[in-house]
TrEMBL record:
Organism: Nocardioides flavescens
Protein name as it appears in the record: DUF3040 domain-containing protein
Keyword terms, alphabetized: Membrane, Transmembrane, Transmembrane helix
InterPro entries, per database record: DUF3040
Sequence intervals crossing the membrane: 42-59
Domain of life: Bacteria
Length: 332
């Protein structure tokens, strides 16, 4: 029978007989697994660990780049969503030669996902593990090397792989990175409450679900990314915010998703640093039973989320936290 294991237990399970074989970089990646939800991951970590997480019934995602080479360690999420200052030569060629490619910023190109493309580490069909999902009004994105060889032209796959190898070292490098300005649209994003993945799982927590983002294309939902633990939905906890770049409108913006304990939230405003306000969509008790999730797009820098009750009173004001390292930047 499978069981849910903590990050610390997974770390011990993945530790080899000789500690020097598991580098500090890889251990740091495992420790941060609970808050990691971007799709770029280290090839040195690989399929085995991701498979172990799924079999263990943990709602989570692959390891992201802990080496500091990518957008994860940027304090400004506006910089992250805008990408490079100009198109790299490989991105410019992709724009010119890949059918359906479109430029969405000065340094970024979005490619359509090929119909027969396979992402072996992310294509987990999620319909069996959710009861309902809501549309977030945004799309998800990943990098070219997330997919099997042959999904894209050889010059593009090998060129992106060479770029990624140059960002790492001899033992680890990012895979599926979008920091080179080449992104693949993987479908519409949906929010759902996801039950443990393993069908045979019947241990503690088998009857509960946790919020997660799904990707939907051609009527099929797959697991996109989780939010680590859902401790932010526990009684007395502060709300938490999660971000995801979106280019579905043809220009960069950031989708913000938040969660809060209870169902007393009637309205949520997302306030940018320039004073502009976005009215978030609020789902009180409908996506996650007994708790509130909310989401909305913001162009520019988000300053705070303000939660109001049905009487119009402010029940929580959450300022976006500054961050100094990749882990701190995951949850704001």
């Amino acid at each position: 029978m499978s069981e849910t294991r903590s990050v610390e237990e997974l770390e011990q399970a993945l530790r080899p007989d000789h500690p020097d074989r598991l580098t500090a970089v890889r251990l740091a990646a495992i420790r941060s697994q609970g808050r990691r939800r971007r799709r770029a991951r280290l090839s040195a970590y690989g399929v085995g660990a991701a498979t172990a997480l799924l079999v263990a019934g943990v709602v989570t995602t692959q390891v992201t780049d802990p080496t500091g080479s990518g957008a994860e360690d940027r304090a400004s999420y506006a910089d992250e969503v805008r990408g490079p200052a100009e198109l790299l030569p490989l991105a410019a060629r992709a724009l010119a030669e890949v059918p359906g490619a479109r430029q969405v910023s000065a340094g970024q190109v979005v490619l359509p996902r090929p119909a027969d493309a396979v992402d072996p580490m992310a294509d987990v069909v999620a319909d069996r593990f959710v009861d309902a999902a809501v549309d977030l009004g945004a799309h998800g994105y990943t990098g070219v090397t997330s997919f099997d060889t042959g999904a894209f032209p050889q010059w593009l796959s090998s060129g992106v792989q060479a770029w990624e190898r140059a960002q790492g070292d001899e033992s680890s490098w990012p895979v599926g990175s979008t920091d080179n300005g080449i992104l693949v649209d993987v479908g519409e994003l949906q929010l759902a409450c996801v039950r443990p993945f393993h069908e045979g799982f019947s241990g503690e927590g088998a009857d509960r679900c946790s919020p997660a983002v799904l990707e939907e294309r051609d009527g099929v939902r797959t697991f996109g990314w989780g939010m680590g633990t859902d401790d932010f939905l526990a009684a007395g906890s502060d709300l938490e915010l999660f971000d995801a770049p979106d280019y579905s409108t043809g220009s960069p913006r950031m989708l913000w998703i938040g969660g809060r304990d209870g169902t007393d939230a009637a309205r949520v405003e997302l306030v940018a640093t320039d004073g502009s306000r976005t009215e978030a969509t609020v789902a009180a008790g409908t996506v996650v039973p007994g708790d509130t999730m909310f989401w909305g797009p913001v162009t520019g820098e988000l300053a705070e989320a303000v939660v109001y009750d049905a009487d119009g009173d402010v029940v929580e004001r959450h300022e976006v936290r500054p961050c100094d390292d990749p882990v701190d930047c995951e949850v704001r």
